[in-house]
Amino acid sequence: MRSVEEFVTEEAAPPSAPGEDEHPALALANSALALPGGHTADLLATPAQAEQWLARRDLAPADAGLAEVCAAQLRSLREQVRSLLASRVAEQPALPAAVTAINDAMTRVPTAPLLLWDEKTGPYRATPHPTTAIVEHALAVIAADAADLLTSPDAARLTACASPPCKRFLLKHGRRQWCSTRCGDRARAARAYARRTTP
Q: What's the CA gap between 10 and 42, in Å, rounded?
């Protein structure tokens, strides 16, 4: 029998939560899904899924050939980003290890274009991203975005989805408290059921 996780692909996942399109760190945090019935799904569970997730966000080529160690690095950064977002939402101090992980990811690859010299055309600047550094580059981009998100005015709009069992984060727009219509409908249905069953 196949597990729930095998049936959940990025296409079958809930639509992007508000803010995910602007912030890859928010999208990364939301790539682990809590589903009704106590099930979970991980959009980064395999190297192929991690590669697809990165390629859809223009953070890696579709044929990068990621290994499990690369997918594990991405999942590890996700947990650190989730920890930082949860701390911000709860207005609690962040875990030092999470802050260190973000800083390490940001500084692992060059952030400024390096000076290179072509024999025919002369000097130029470019940020090298050899195949071996694809994941490190993606992690640096996501970590920098997490730092930007947490220190920008958008941080005041950061919240967790208000529809259990969902554990996704979003940027509030108006009074919206849910990451998707699906979660909003589930929360409204739960409230209506509670009103009907309360004596």
A: 9
Query: Counting beta carbons within 10 angstroms of the beta carbon of residue 58, is it exposed (0 to 12), middle (13 to 18) or buried (19 or more)?
Result: exposed
Please answer whether residues 173 and 139 qualify as being in contact, where contact means their C-beta atoms are separated by less than 8 angstroms: no
The stretches of the chain forming alpha helices (DSSP H) are: 4-7, 24-29, 47-56, 68-90, 96-107, 134-151, 181-197
The strand pairing partners of 32, in sequence order, are 42
Does the CA dihedral 12-15-19-22 come out positive or negative?
Answer: positive
What pLDDT is recorded for position 91? 94
In the block, residue with structure tokens 């550094």: 133
CB atoms within 10 A of CB 134: 19
Write the DSSP string, 145-164: HHHHHHHSGGGGGEEE-SST
Distance CA 193, CA 191 (A): 5
pLDDT of 126 reads 78
Measured in degrees and rounded to the nearest 5, phi and psi for residue 40 equal: -130, 160
Q: Per the confidence metrics, is the pTM higher than 0.85?
A: no
The pair phi, psi for residue 158, each rounded to 5°, is -70, 135
* Alpha-carbon distance values, 110 to 75, 85, 118, 126 (Å): 22, 25, 19, 10
Tokens linked to 188: 């409204």
